[in-house]
Please model this.
Amino acid sequence: MSDAVTENEYDSDVEAAIRENHPALITYITAGDPSLEDTKEYVEALDRGGSDLIELGLPFSEPIAEGPTIQAAINRALAAGTTPEGFFELVDDLETEAPLLVMTYYNMILQYGGSEAPRASDGRAAKPRDKPEVRPFVERAAGAGLSGIIVPDLPAEEAGPLRAACDDHGLDLVFIIAPTTEGQRLDDIMSQVSGFAYVQARLGTTGARANVSSATHESLARLEEYDVPKAVGFGVSEGDHAAEIVEAGADGVIVGSALVDIIAEHGSDTGAAAERLEAKAAELKRGARRGADSLTVDGEDAPEPEQP
Model:
């Protein structure tokens, strides 16, 4: 459970975390990779390292938005027996300064709480006897202390029931904005967004990249008129990436695959992985701040030149 409490001028803990810690660092790892016990240590390390928001992936067997790195992490978590209820028990047990969000797929939300609530590994398993409903999942998420939900495969046009449930329980519902999204569809998505807009840096799936896509700059410019924080993800892996993205106008950066890679590299050496995660978060936060400092120097707050 996050220690964050909404006592600020903003609509939610998520928005406050971004606005008050601008530029924000948002980190992602897959819950249960390689175990839920290890995940607890990793979340706490990311919190110490300077994460302002932490996304926890609830593993699902058909993760359409994920690249090979996160797919492999999801497979490891499923093999370790991660279930939705185990995930929520983990969140119950967490104590972080950073608000926590869950990232998962709509089938998991629909099926949770049915008379045959599925394991995460069941994917599109047998339908429960009761009609699938979103509210049991949202109620459990709020009770565990989560601050928001990200659902990559939920179209904005079909988000009404989940949006209403999140509103009733004080959770943000975050949507991913693709580089090709524009016009009325963009308006429709942005009308549903709360907390922040998850700006997809490039087409395709998640995964660490060597550079920042030019689409990032174009997407941020297209979203400038909307009064909601914008955070950029998909491909961010280094402090220099974070700096460039903030310079382009982002309010935050989202990093996942680079962190999941660290976990995979260290296997069962939880302590070493935690140390590297903490250090990587600190590096990324410093990079984001460099980007903000560059904007300050180049903008109105720049110091006056000395007179001869």
